[in-house]
């Protein structure tokens, strides 16, 4: 007598179903939790801006930047990188380093120009989105020379947000209000957006801290402690100085890029490519 057993599922479908309902290792969750915390910090910065608590808003964007720098390193340390994490990180970066700084700058200063001020901060958010999209596309290039891993193409999104907030650091430092800086921001904010989408090579921090010579460990730890103490005591002065140093590093990075391109037989005029995943991977 013939058996009327139901047809069995294809092996591939069964495998997909098991993967769908299987357990996810914790090492994949931890970096994504850090990314979500960064997203929460960026969204909270927007709320603080609406409430007029601008110093806290800036601090929350800086916190988002710190968390954004940690999630990729945690993912690599735990071997928990994933495509989901990379996409989540890009969305979080757009909110924390594109939308949040734009809203903070508008509510703090550029609202005095109404529609024009909104267009100015909108340009910053758009440039951030373009920068992140270009970065994600460049990750798929298998022919990227190894030496380019030390450079970004243009200013990365987190650094762009920190640089865009420079007028606020100075205003908090010298105690003047936001509307007095509005005319400067009309030119400064689009300039920062241009740096983000430009082809200017800027130093990447990906290679920092992977290997440290033994004799440098204690001096570096001491410098970190001193820097943290100075940042806690004089936050706006330190952030202003850091931004000035970052601007000063751009000509140096361009020179070093040209030298390395010539040494490796490349054309310094060629388009550079983004080289750092700092999300689970990703500024």
Layout: helices, strands, pairs:
Layout: H1 11-21, H2 26-50, H3 54-78, H4 83-108, H5 115-138, E1 151-153, H6 157-164, H7 166-174, H8 182-197, E2 201-203, H9 217-233, H10 235-263
Antiparallel strand pairs: 1-2
Helix pairs in contact: 2-3, 2-4, 3-4, 3-6, 4-5, 4-6, 5-8, 6-8, 7-10, 9-10
Number of helices: 10
Q: Which homologous superfamily in CATH is the superfamily? A: CDP-alcohol phosphotransferase transmembrane (TM) domain
Report helical residue fraction. Answer: 55-70%
Total domains? 1
- Rg over CA atoms, rounded to whole Å, is 22 Å
What is the CATH topology assignment? Four Helix Bundle (Hemerythrin (Met), subunit A)
Instruction: Using the coordinates above, name the CATH class.
Output: Mainly Alpha
Sheet-strand content, in percent, reads under 5%
Give a concise summary:
This protein is mostly helical. Helices cover about 65% and strands about 0% of the residues. It is built from ten helices and two strands; from the N terminus they run αααααβαααβαα.
Polypeptide structure, described:
- The longest helix has 29 residues, at 235-263.
- Helix 3 packs antiparallel against helix 6 and helix 6 (157-164) runs antiparallel to helix 8 (182-197).
- This protein has helices at 11-21, 26-50, 54-78, 83-108, 115-138, 157-164, 166-174, 182-197, 217-233, 235-263; strands at residues 151-153, 201-203.
- It has a two-stranded antiparallel ribbon.
- The protein has 10 helices and 2 strands.
- With 283 residues, it is mainly α.
- It has one domain (26-207, 215-263): Four Helix Bundle (Hemerythrin (Met), subunit A) (Up-down Bundle), CATH 1.20.120.
- The protein starts with 10 loop residues before the first helix and ends in a 20-residue tail after the last helix.
- Mean pLDDT is 83; it is low at 268-283.
